[in-house]
């Protein structure tokens, strides 16, 4: 508020000089300068005029006190407002502020507010002048000093002048008290520790009758509560007083001084409601004291005007944030529902933003306005559409999923391109959560893929494939529907990929033509192969889509009888394809036709039902993905891992795809374990002994030795310890390990015991690795070792193809 008042006076002064003092030659020159600058036809001509005027202004400043300094500074401020440099007028502002004449003080303070800020050293020169003017006998001089301090006062100035401001808060003049209050707000924002200085005075300001002072007091108390939560209990005692002030504003008769569109001082009402929201948050006593008032404001305020809507909106926010009654919350939601019918798009936007925040806590109340919210999807404004979409998706439930999905699918076909991806994702999530049947679920996703297949996320295809595999009774229906969609349009890549997969898996069901759920259509083998060949040859098909189509074609070789030679011909063509992935598939499929034809039927048999939570389906890992160590647990100070360049991490992503000769681990002797009391206890069973913990050395280079030790092993889980030691004369630093495993294996690396390995073998660094192997595949792991030794950085990669046996495996001897 201080800044707004400040610039209002500032611009008022400049136009006052231009329009009021036309009889005086200096002001005529200002008016003439403005006219000439505005009449400039080009930017270059304007710059020339500005340069000449700035030269004249500099000359006037150098002449000293000639009575023209204030007019020259006024012209310079106009030049500054046009965006041209005016820094050479800073010292002139300091001189004019120190002048005893009010006309010069005013333009000096105005210049200080526009040309100076807390980063300028010249701002410190006016501190003493401001302090003197705060004690001036004229309220207008005091006002200038208060406005300037509130606008550009630095932290040092605020500390020096805070006692003066606190003194003015107790002044009898309402005009000064209002400006001092706003200045105190600026001081608290700059120096929060000074808040205690203004707390006693802020409480007494609520008894003022002047609306300007009341407004400043409410702003000051709000700032105190936000900056220092310890003051909340003190100001909660003022809630009844704030309620009375608010009631007076709501029930007061027409007052032309404060009335805005039929609302009595809506600015003060909004500020009071905002303060009540802060005071009533998580406090039952304060909330109970304001419930009746909020109901009165919500009922009696006219929402046909913008001022009334602002008050009602703040009332709704207050009701939702305090511990209000349930009936009052329903009333607040209904007010937001009325806002949705407003012609002003801004009001509709803020209404939906507020409903979005409360839909989880007051879902049933918001559901009553579902029709109005859905209608907002047809709004021309994109931001309103986006908010309506988010709110519509939040309103979907098991009860209304069919009707809401119908509306959302209609919106998907006409929505702007920037909202299509968000709409598709929201429909997918809602369908998965509330689908009444699998057929409805599949139909909904296929409809989305048909309309926006290019805007869906990458995981849509595997998720839909998993859904189709689990709905065994719908395989015939799904393959027929996807085949028709494929023949009709191959532009939507996601849809084409799913269709190719289904045709490859369930092509025999398609060729039978027996489907109860859909009108049967006779499809021949040539028709199916023509469709797949069209996908393979289309310029719209991506490499991934061609891979789906080629695999589907190959799978049909075991599901049809008359066109196997044609399939062999199609596959052989792509054996020399420029795309390496497609070429590799074709070469492997050709090998199935020739060398391994006896295995082709088994290899290409129908895929089993996919479990959505199975490894490789939802974890999103790629082969060779790097697992960073778990740093959630505390570790030694030296254990902080150093980040590596991005290029090195990218290189590691290919750990499992390289062609380097694997490093075969060789067994290494281990030290004899020490006998403990636990071993004695085990001996109670008779002849039960612990074998030594087996370890395998996997890396020996530059004095660094890395060994692997298997601590625990089950059918699906392995716990491994990596132990590093140093035999050189100097410490090895920056020691880090990174690991990569096949896609079907889940890996977790614990935090290492350190990053420094002591010299002469005086210490070790250990790191635990957890492997989860639910598919029981052959375990392989690649490890990247990075370390610094004698100032040189070393980096090596080793591959582990076999692991030692489980540690502490008991062997039972005969009794």
Automatic annotation (TrEMBL):
Tell me any Pfam family this protein matches: Adaptin_N
> How does the record classify its membrane topology?
Peripheral membrane protein
User: Where does the protein principally reside?
Assistant: membrane
Matching SUPFAM superfamilies: ARM repeat, Clathrin adaptor appendage domain
Specify where the region named Disordered lies, as residue ranges: 609-638, 658-677
Which keywords does the record carry? Cytoplasmic vesicle, Golgi apparatus, Membrane, Protein transport, Transport
Which intervals hold domain GAE?
691-804
Where located? Cytoplasmic vesicle membrane; Endomembrane system; Golgi apparatus
Name the GO terms of the biological process aspect: intracellular protein transport; vesicle-mediated transport
What's the domain of life for this entry? Answer: Eukaryota
Bias type Basic and acidic residues, positions: 624-636
- Xref: InterPro entries: Adaptor_Complx_Large_Subunit (IPR050840), AP1_complex_gsu (IPR017107), ARM-like (IPR011989), ARM-type_fold (IPR016024), Clathrin/coatomer_adapt-like_N (IPR002553), Clathrin_a/b/g-adaptin_app_Ig (IPR008152), Clathrin_app_Ig-like_sf (IPR013041), GAE_dom (IPR008153)
Q: Name one GO cellular component term.
A: AP-1 adaptor complex
What family classification does the UniProt entry report for this protein?
Answer: Belongs to the adaptor complexes large subunit family.
PANTHER family linked = ADAPTIN, ALPHA/GAMMA/EPSILON
What is the protein named? AP-1 complex subunit gamma
Q: What is the organism field in this record?
A: Onychostoma macrolepis
């Amino acid at each position: 508020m201080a800044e707004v008042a400040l610039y209002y006076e500032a611009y008022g002064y400049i136009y006052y000089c231009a329009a009021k003092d036309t009889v005086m030659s200096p002001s005529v020159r200002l008016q003439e300068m403005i006219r000439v600058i505005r009449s400039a036809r080009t930017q270059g001509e304007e710059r020339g005029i500005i340069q000449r005027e700035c030269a004249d202004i500099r000359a006037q400043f150098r002449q000293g006190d000639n009575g023209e300094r204030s007019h020259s500074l006024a012209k310079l401020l106009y030049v500054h407002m046009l965006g041209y440099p005016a820094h050479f007028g800073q010292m002139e502002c300091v001189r004019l502020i120190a002048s005893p004449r009010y006309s010069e003080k005013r333009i000096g303070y105005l210049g200080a507010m526009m040309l100076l800020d807390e980063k300028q050293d010249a701002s410190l020169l006016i501190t003493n002048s401001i302090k003197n003017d705060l004690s001036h006998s004229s309220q207008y001089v005091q006002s200038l000093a208060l406005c300037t301090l509130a606008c550009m006062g630095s932290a040092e100035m605020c500390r020096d002048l805070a006692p003066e401001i606190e003194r003015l808060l107790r002044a009898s003049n309402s005009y000064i008290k209002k400006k001092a209050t706003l200045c105190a707000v600026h001081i608290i924002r700059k120096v929060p520790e000074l808040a205690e200085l203004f707390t006693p005075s802020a409480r007494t300001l609520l008894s003022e009758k002047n609306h300007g002072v009341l407004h400043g007091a409410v702003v000051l108390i709000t700032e105190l509560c936000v900056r220092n939560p310890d003051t909340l209990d003190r100001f909660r005692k003022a809630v009844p007083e704030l309620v009375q002030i608010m009631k007076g504003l709501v029930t007061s008769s027409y007052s032309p001084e404060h009335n805005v569109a039929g609302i009595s001082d809506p600015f003060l009402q909004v500020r009071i409601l905002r303060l009540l929201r802060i005071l009533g948050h998580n406090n039952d006593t304060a909330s109970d004291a304001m419930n009746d008032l909020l109901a009165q404001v919500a009922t009696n305020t006219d929402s046909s005007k913008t001022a009334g809507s602002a008050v009602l909106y703040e009332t709704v926010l207050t009701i939702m944030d305090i511990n209000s009654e349930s009936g009052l919350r329903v009333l607040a939601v209904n007010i937001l529902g009325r806002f949705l019918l407003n012609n002003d798009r801004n009001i509709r936007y803020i209404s939906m933003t507020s409903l979005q925040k409360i839909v989880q806590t007051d879902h049933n109340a918001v559901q009553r306005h579902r029709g109005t919210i859905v209608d907002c999807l047809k709004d021309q404004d994109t931001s309103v559409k986006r908010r309506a979409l988010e709110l519509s998706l939040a309103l979907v439930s098991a009860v209304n999923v069919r009707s809401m999905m119908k509306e959302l699918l209609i919106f998907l076909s006409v929505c702007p391109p920037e909202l299509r991806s968000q709409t598709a994702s929201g429909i997918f999530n809602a369908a998965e959560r509330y689908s009444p049947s699998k057929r409805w679920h599949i139909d909904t996703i296929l409809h989305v893929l048909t309309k926006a297949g290019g805007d869906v996320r990458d995981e849509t295809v595997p998720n839909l494939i998993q859904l189709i595999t689990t709905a065994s009774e719908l395989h015939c229906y799904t393959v027929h529907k996807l085949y028709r969609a494929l023949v009709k349009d191959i532009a939507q890549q996601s849809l084409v990929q799913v269709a190719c997969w289904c045709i490859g898996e369930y092509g025999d069901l398609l060729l039978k033509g027996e489907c109860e759920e859909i009108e049967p259509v006779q499809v021949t083998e040539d028709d199916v192969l023509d469709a797949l060949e069209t996908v393979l040859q289309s310029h719209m098909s991506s490499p991934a889509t061609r891979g789906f189509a080629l695999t589907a074609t190959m799978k049909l070789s075991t599901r049809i009888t008359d066109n196997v030679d044609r399939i062999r011909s199609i596959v052989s063509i792509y054996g020399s394809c420029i795309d390496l992935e497609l070429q590799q598939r074709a070469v492997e499929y050709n090998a199935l036709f020739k060398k391994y034809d006896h295995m082709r039927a088994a290899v290409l048999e129908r895929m089993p039902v996919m479990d959505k939570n199975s490894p490789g389906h939802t974890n999103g890992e790629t082969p060779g993905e790097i697992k960073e160590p778990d740093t959630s647990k505390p570790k030694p100070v030296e254990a902080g891992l150093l980040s590596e360049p991005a290029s090195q991490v990218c290189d590691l992503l290919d750990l499992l795809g390289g062609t380097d000769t694997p490093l075969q681990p060789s067994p290494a002797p281990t030290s004899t374990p020490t006998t403990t009391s636990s071993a004695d206890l085990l001996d109670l069973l008779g002849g039960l002994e612990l074998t030594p913990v087996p370890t395998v050395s996997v890396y020996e280079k530059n004095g660094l030795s890395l060994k692997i030790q298997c601590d625990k092993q089950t059918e699906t889980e392995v716990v491994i310890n990596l132990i590093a030691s140093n035999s050189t004369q100097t410490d090895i630093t920056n020691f880090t390990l990174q690991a990569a495993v096949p896609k079907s294996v889940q890996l977790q690396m614990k935090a290492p015991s350190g990053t420094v390995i002591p010299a002469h073998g005086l210490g070790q660094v250990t790191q635990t690795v957890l492997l989860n192997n639910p598919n029981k595949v052959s375990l392989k792991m690649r490890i990247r070792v990075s370390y610094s030794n004698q100032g040189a950085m070393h980096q090596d990669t080793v591959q582990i193809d076999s692991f030692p046996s489980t540690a502490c495996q008991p062997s039972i001897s005969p009794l």
